[in-house]
Amino acid sequence: MGTFINLHIMNNRITQLFTIQFPIIQAGMVWASGWRLASAVSNAGGLGIIGAGSMYPHILEEHIQQCKKATHKPFAVNLPLLYPDIEKHIQIIINEKVPIVFTSAGNPKTWTSILKEKGIKVVHVVSSSAFAVKAQNAGCDAIVAEGFEAGGHNGREETTTMVLIPAVCNAVTIPVIAAGGIATGKQMLAAMVLGADAVQIGSRFVCTPEASSHLSFKEAIINAKEGDTMLMMKKTVPVRLLKNKFYESIAAAEAEGATAETLNNLLGKGRAKKGMFDGNLAEGELEIGQVSSLINEIKPAAEIVKEIWAEYCEIKNLIANPIKT
After folding, report:
1. What is the average pLDDT score of the chain?
2. CB within 8 A of 143, min separation 6: which ones?
3. Domain of 97: which CATH number?
4. How do 100-104 and 152-153 pair as beta strands?
5. How many CB atoms lie within 10 A of CB 174?
6. pTM above the 0.90 mark?
7. Are 201 and 249 found together in one domain?
8. Are residues 313 and 258 part of one domain?
9. 197 lies in the same domain as 285
10. Cα separation, 132 vs 137, whole angstroms
């Protein structure tokens, strides 16, 4: 008899920790992950995340309140620790009783204990096993191990997801969430086989009606091919970009040995908003992962969650019960 796989729920450390149906987490991406996307993913059984990195404090507050109205299921806020108004964001998260916070781009020791004292579960994003250990020692409940395939801000080590996940799983005892280059059920299964308890998916959820990103940016992702993204700005804060005119100016500057100051001047202010939110595909900063080459349509977030989980279960079942010839 074949092994029965429950398509309705999975019981593991992450689903228990977050009280969610599927170990599928939508990344908190700037200019994409507002309350509409987060609530849609949570309502579909995953964990939706509001990306606070592109929000003023009062905007974050509005998105949290709207998300509460749109879903009765758990959701999270992603909080870059280098954000200039971090204290205000922390206070809003506490006041609004957000159940889960994903932190990134900073030292997890700074805020983890404060958030946990308020009953908030804390997850930190890392790009190496050394940082994973630091996050565990800081008291984090889980970590996101993000390979260099991922879009947006990334690790300088350039460790791929397939190498990073087993390394991190060997280094820590808390649950590990795999991220970077994951958009399908097959890729999710690969990450779980490597030891992950869940996956965090960003790029695939940008191409949804619920994502706040500009339609032109979504269409550019759909048209992306292998090699159309590159990790840049390593002298400042590494970021994976879709190639365009702005990318070319950064690449030229880096080839000439530009300093961090020069690169920051080229970046300027509001470059990410210009590209991903306003739709200026030439001059804007277009942050997206390598897996964009596998994305070919805009689809509702709930359908993506169901599609990924169904494929995961199907392939897992086929491996457990190979067809005999």
Report:
1. 94
2. 123, 124, 125, 126, 132, 135, 136, 168, 172, 174, 175, 176, 177
3. 3.20.20.70
4. unpaired
5. 17
6. yes
7. no
8. no
9. no
10. 9
Same domain, 225 and 100: no
Total tally of structural domains belonging to the chain? 2
pLDDT-based confidence at residue 10 (cuts at 50, 70, 90): confident
- How many other β-carbons are positioned within 10 Å of the β-carbon of residue 324? 4
109 lies in the same domain as 246: no
- Indicate whether 6 belongs to any domain: no
- CA-to-CA distance for 246 and 3, rounded, in angstroms? 51
- Name the nearest CA neighbour of 38 among 73, 67, 72, 80: 67
Give the C-alpha separation, 205 to 298, whole Å: 9
| pLDDT tens digits along 92-115 | 999 999 999 999 988 999 999 999
The pair of structure tokens assigned to 289 is 């992962």
- Looking at residue 83, its pLDDT comes to 82
One domain, residues 76 and 188? yes
Do 38 and 19 sit in the same domain of this protein?
yes
- Residue 93 CA to residue 99 CA, distance in Å, equals 9
Query: 45: left (phi > 0), else alpha (psi -120 to 50), else beta?
Result: left
For residue 121, the enclosing domain spans: 13-212+297-319
On whether residue 133 sits in a domain, the answer given is yes
Decide if 324 is inside a domain.
no
Residue 208 sits in the same domain as residue 222:
no
What pLDDT was estimated at residue 157?
86
Six-digit token string for 111: 């805020």
* pLDDT tens sequence across 22-67: 999 999 999 999 999 999 999 999 999 999 999 999 999 999 999 9
Q: With left for phi above 0 and alpha for psi between -120 and 50, is residue 270 left, alpha or beta?
A: left
Could you give the CA distance from residue 251 to residue 243 in angstroms, rounded to a whole number? 10
